[in-house]
User: Which sequence fits this backbone?
């Protein structure tokens, strides 16, 4: 102990500039003084323990997600108007995106759930389970209402789809398989032993950096590119890359009710087919597995327009 | 035609029921495990700032610079039961700096002035060194750079200051951006209490 102390003093002396005067430091004590040693009624202050994570925001996130899913389902399936869906989209980008900084998101939670199922030592909190399951349950009942504008990643792209062009159907379908490849890769890397574990979906999320105004430069650029490309090609990430979207489209295939274009409520004229930026209308009917329930088709429907001008 | 329609509907019902059961099962399994949660934590035995033996080198400041939060979720914490309460604290004063008029080093270690130094009880003006001083860290200023942790550890100090992830601030990112760059792989997800 003495030797090492001496070594430090020498080291410190050697490191200092010759001219500057400095104190001759050596540690005065070997053990910490107790409250009795200090005396004078001294009471040691409490050590700042790491506080447990607040439960309030977790509950708030789950409740808000459920409410947003319900509102999206009601707007898309009952109210059948685009305007309010856009309002919901903006609200969700603001809250889940910019305010909550894109975390916890159901997309990334896929990996946590997979790890928790495989690794006995790893657990996910209740709210992550809820956030993972809620959109899937919603998809089983009402189709992809999560994509309608609740998901901040989808919502920010939805708002950017200003001049969408039609993508050839076969190309669209072929690129759609990338989602499953990505999902497979993400699960493969997630269920590795802890040292090699990698959360691909989170590491390569192109939009979360934009919500946080920070992140690797190349990823921010990729996010920007996705947004710019999204002006002309509707929601490229959602359609061809989103691994959770792959799950949602599988689940929405068996939806109880889903977004629909019906002859008795709409005109059945086919005008809507060109209004859909996502190629989700075939033969004048919405394809439930690829429909994001954005409501653009309602906006283009002559009957809808007429009814809205008469009775808003 | 109507028969096919019905069969299709039945299949849909069956698939939906199956999917709901599956989701319910997954939820159940995960809920049974969810009494604890894994949160990011720093292994003091690995962190270069707190690890014994790593001395006389520059402190790693990645905790301060690489968190996604503007003020890092990592903070320095002084374990008072181990603090020597020295007159000249090597984690408070830059002991290599020039001596000021009061006989103490003129520069501080903390770049953000987050450490408070207060004398305990009455100080003898003729012999201020013969007294105990309390060093507390202001959490609203500390950014977890770890400079003080490096200076406080043995043998110069008693090693009472450590770096800690504040779970109430930590966003619990799946890809903790500090963990991704930590040169010593000192970050890991460890079980932590939840409210």
Assistant:
């Amino acid at each position: 102990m003495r030797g090492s102390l001496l070594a430090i003093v020498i080291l410190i002396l050697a490191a200092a500039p010759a001219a500057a005067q400095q104190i001759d430091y050596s540690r005065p004590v070997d053990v910490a003084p107790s409250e009795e040693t200090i005396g004078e009624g001294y009471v040691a202050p409490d050590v700042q323990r790491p506080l447990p994570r607040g439960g309030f925001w977790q509950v708030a996130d789950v409740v808000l997600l459920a409410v947003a899913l319900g509102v999206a389902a009601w707007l898309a399936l009952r109210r059948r108007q685009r305007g309010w869906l856009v309002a919901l989209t903006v609200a969700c980008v603001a809250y889940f995106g910019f305010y909550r900084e894109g975390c916890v998101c159901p997309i990334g939670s896929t990996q946590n759930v997979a790890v928790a199922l495989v690794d006995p030592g790893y657990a996910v909190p209740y709210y992550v389970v809820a956030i993972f399951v809620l959109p899937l349950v919603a998809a089983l009942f009402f189709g992809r209402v999560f994509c309608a504008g609740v998901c901040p990643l989808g919502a920010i792209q939805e708002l950017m789809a200003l001049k969408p062009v039609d993508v050839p159907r076969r190309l669209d379908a072929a690129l759609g398989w990338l989602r499953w490849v990505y999902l497979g890769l993400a699960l493969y890397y997630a269920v590795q032993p802890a040292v090699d574990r990698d959360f691909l979906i989170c590491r390569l999320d192109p939009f979360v950096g934009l919500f946080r105004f920070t992140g690797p430069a190349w990823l921010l650029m990729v996010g920007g590119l996705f947004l710019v490309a999204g002006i002309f090609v509707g929601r490229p990430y959602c359609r061809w890359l989103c691994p959770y979207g792959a799950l949602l489209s599988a689940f929405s295939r068996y939806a109880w009710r889903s977004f629909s274009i019906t002859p008795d409520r709409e005109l059945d004229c086919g005008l809507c087919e060109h209004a859909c930026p996502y190629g989700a209308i075939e033969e004048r009917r919405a394809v439930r597995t690829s429909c994001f329930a954005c409501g653009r088709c309602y906006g283009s429907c002559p009957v809808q327009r007429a009814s809205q001008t008469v009775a808003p | 035609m109507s028969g096919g329609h019905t069969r299709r509907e039945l299949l849909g019902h069956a698939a939906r029921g199956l999917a709901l059961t599956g989701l319910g099962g997954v939820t159940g399994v995960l809920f049974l495990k969810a009494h604890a949660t894994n949160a990011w934590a720093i292994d003091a035995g690995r962190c270069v700032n707190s690890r014994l033996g790593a001395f006389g080198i520059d402190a790693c400041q990645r905790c301060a610079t690489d968190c996604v939060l503007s003020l890092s979720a990592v903070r320095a914490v002084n374990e008072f039961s181990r603090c020597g309460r020295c007159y000249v604290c090597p984690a408070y004063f830059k002991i290599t700096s020039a001596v000021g008029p009061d006989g103490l080093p003129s520069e501080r270690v903390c770049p953000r002035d987050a450490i408070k130094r207060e004398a305990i009880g009455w100080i003898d003006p003729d012999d201020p060194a013969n007294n105990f001083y309390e060093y507390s860290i202001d959490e609203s200023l500390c950014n977890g750079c770890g400079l003080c942790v490096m200076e406080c550890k043995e043998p110069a100090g008693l090693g009472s200051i450590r770096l800690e992830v504040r779970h109430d601030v930590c966003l619990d990112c799946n890809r903790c951006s500090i963990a991704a760059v930590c040169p010593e792989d000192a970050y890991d997800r460890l079980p932590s209490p939840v409210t």
About this structure: Chain B touches chain A through 75 residues (CB under 8 Å). The CA atoms of residues 87 and 129 of chain B lie 5 Å apart.
